[in-house]
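call fold(seq) -> tokens
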Amino acid sequence: MSRRWWFLLFAVLSCRTATVSRNMEESPIVIEAPVIPDTAVFLVRVGIAKDTRFHARAENFVISKGGKRLLSGRGDFYVRFAGGRPAHIGYFEILARHRDMGSAIVDLKILQESGRKVRLFSTGAVIGPVDTREFLIIEGPYASVEELRRKGITDSTRYLRLLVEPPSGEAEVIYGNRKLRISTPFEIQYSGLLTLVGYREYDPLHGSRRITRSYPGRFEVWTDVGGKALTMVNVVHLEDYVAGVLPYEMRPDFPIEALRAQAILARTHAVSNYNRKLNLLIQPYQLTDDVFTQVYGGFTSVNDRVLRAVRSTRGQVLSYGNRIVEAYFHSSCGGSLESSEVWNLSLDYYVAKADNADGVPLDLRDELSVRRFIDNPDPRAYCSGMGRETKGSLRGAEKVFRWRKFVDADLLGGRLGVGRVVEIIPLERSRGGRIKRLLVIGERGRKTIVGELNIRRILGHPGYLRSALFYVEPKSGGFLIKGAGFGHGIGMCQYGAGFRALDGQKFYQILQFYIPGSRIKRIYF
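ret:
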């Protein structure tokens, strides 16, 4: 391989928003994955909110751009959108995916020699001893999704969006009687925490709402890719990020060993997903503050128990073989832990089994088995809460272990456009019993719903059904859904972890049950 090829291979561009050249000939290979050798000071970039106006408060704050100090003060200030230009986005077809660079280069050269205008694009990152990179061979840019669809590319996993030109814009900062107009992006630094007051959050589970939260680290203010609003990005140390995740993904009054297990999973999830979400490649951040990655609420609900769990597991992540674990968790498995095939993934460490002391394998792919499982709950299941003295947040275990919901036939049919629904038929279940494909038959048509999350969203509207582990009984005016658990069922069952901790299990024993074969690895001290 020539010197030129090696030089291009190891060129690492910005770890921020991925930007590509308009001219394909100028950059035949693009490596975007960041390299973070000093993980002890690893900062993550989290998208917090998008809006045209923000009210912020800090004990002391400094606003700067390019290292130049522009404004300082204390207390309340406001940031308003003052105009902008949208990004120019290119659409690229994904021709191949590779885990190692060598095989990707061979594939790339073959395609280039055949006259294809292709390039190499790397997602993921090298974070200390952890390498999460994936090498994509992409072709483009295309002007729109429609242009790709005309080529027969309709699956969103077969293309990605990259910035050909980033957005630009200006914001007005108002502090007392002072007004300062600044081009984006710029930085807000502060002592202690910065509070965003009454900002608009959109949560898939709760819809749009106004909330107030306080954040460590610092903030960057960017023009949104649409050029019509501002995006607030919290730049924060990974450990502070994990502390801000913990009370929103597991209640702070859970037993400390369960909190420790959750802290390791939250850290693992952040590292394994950093710079890997294809939908975020056009954004100035690599993680979100909602369920698209994991819920992060800053330091608003952080207490001593949370800090103790995070500090005692500092730098620890889960690995399996020589790769970091794809870390998943959920509220309650309903007694049935799920295999990764419910999402059409192939992860050996996630298998369908009972959440009891034995962890016996389960196969709930047929309707009769699912009905028996739901109607005859196992009192030995850790997440059941049955026959146990519970207090605090663990009292909620029984409510989600088994549940019921009525779905109106007319309302469901109206949402799907099939008329009054007359029958709901599961077409495919995973080994853990979750429905992967569901047929809804109405008086004026039928609709097949694919994916456990889509099924939960459509049947649970507004909001989401607690899980896809359910069966359906027709009732007058609609259907009664009898279900088990809360969440997708993959990975650690949080209520199960809580009760295991009460039984004296340590965090590493809890993790070993839910992610068998995994090992705890410390990536920094």
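The CA atoms of residues 50 and 445 lie 39 Å apart.
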